């Protein structure tokens, strides 16, 4: 055996509870460190005992782990808050086959430890902090499958299975790869056994990686990296995660779908729609939006496929995407065979590229009885802004069998912006909890998952089933109405917690085409709702959908006289901060004195402005900073500070850096008046011949677009 890497970690508390959270990431989400992996599936978990070298006769059989006994963590499960959880929900194994398989694998392996593999037994028990040999050594044994990524050419390599042995008292996590022998039986692949070990020095902790048989180690570069990678890259990440000791606020990624299916389908769709990046007609980033919608579509297609398998139906689910935006998600789902449509308040240019088979509608969706979808299986809210909290309500009132998927982004309440209430949470976590509360109050079992998308806000909420039977619809809708109206006044009392969901096994939702569809009876209409519900009109007054025409808020639509006044005011403030100077260090007496002014922070500039001007600027995106940056000819804004732009320096940079030569000095030459010539006390710092802007009306040239128009006449 050999140590391939060791890193020292200092922990002021001398506890290092983050170590177990760190190794849990490598156990449950190895793709975070190894980018060639798609993920891992934990199939079974058992508690076991470390065999003693002098033992003979019957071996202790594996016993159910704490999560399968329904008990809390045992003494060997790790006393720290940072200890790894039992594992992601991911894809639960059917029946007890994986559990019994793990029993058999561990039983065979533990027998071999004494009968023929004493060195491996010593390797498992290796730890500076290990207890005496006679003391009990409780282990946590996990059976997992490592899933490599899929490429257009196929999967990088086949999924590999491992037993992982966690010894909390000994401070070790040992990985035992499995391979098939000639008879097709699984056995431990001794050559690729390795261990992550935590040991204690006098003043610091050490995390090490040890390989049992370094001379026989086989690296495929994917599932089994080279030893140098384990000793450097992996150790560096584990050390960093250990001292961060951060417990994630969110669930594991792709915990509700099969990671294997997701990886395969995502690569297929990515290859199919990659050409969209080249022809993207919108101003948004095509790399982000195309691949994000491909990932969301992949997730929904796998989720719906597994739902059909669970319900025993073949008919593909219908959907409506509320606030569909560019419509690409609708296009992908439609081409996958799911009937559906998208609705958005504004038509996008890209819609014309999809063709008539992709049904996209321009129109506002408001929370009222006219905006129900009784024949739709799923409502989708992908960054649906002000509609996000209403989607669970619309789904609940559309039909008893309507489900929802929302991916929250901007923080909206039922009316207006969402008001923060809990400072101990991040705003994002608090808003997700609010949307989950809405779904629970509407009568849904709400599940949370993290998507693999290029976005910081990637947590989705899924309402797949109901917590109540169909005959309780009227009373539940009264409860929904009370809850919605309780949110009318920000800061008012929160509603009571929603009623507890039924016990496991009493899920009243079934497929509309399945045997339980007939038991549901007719859907209650609007008149059957509680007395507080409105039969017509908005469900809550004050709701405003987005405007049909998006208002420009980059300061460009502000009145010209207002912009000119602000520019002059800021310029005078800057000019008053520095005395006139000659042109740099030049000794040329022909260079006239020119005052470049001083530098001020944006906060200092804002403090000199009147309240009315500031309020007007705050209504624009970026406010004062955006206005000053738009006036590129006059100001330079960098790192929160503003100064007058010195065109002498600009000219010098263009001479020394060829990539900067294109600019106002080429096709835009003399097409705009020189602000400094007109307003600066010393005039323009450049002579008229070299200034890219016009010194007076006589130099002003028509813009290139105007010249082209004149040529066509």
Automatic annotation (TrEMBL):
It is found in: Cytoplasm. Residues 492-504 have a biased composition (Pro residues). A zinc finger (C3H1-type) spans 668-698. Residues 517-533 have a biased composition (Low complexity). Residues 579-592 have a biased composition (Polar residues). This is tRNA (uracil-O(2)-)-methyltransferase. It catalyses: uridine(44) in tRNA(Ser) + S-adenosyl-L-methionine = 2'-O-methyluridine(44) in tRNA(Ser) + S-adenosyl-L-homocysteine + H(+). It comes from Loxodonta africana (African elephant). PANTHER family: TRNA (URACIL-O(2)-)-METHYLTRANSFERASE-RELATED. Pfam families: AdoMet_MTase. GO terms for molecular function: tRNA(Ser) (uridine(44)-2'-O-)-methyltransferase activity; zinc ion binding. It comes from the Eukaryota. Residues 668-698 form the C3H1-type domain. GO terms for cellular component: cytoplasm. Belongs to the TRM44 family.
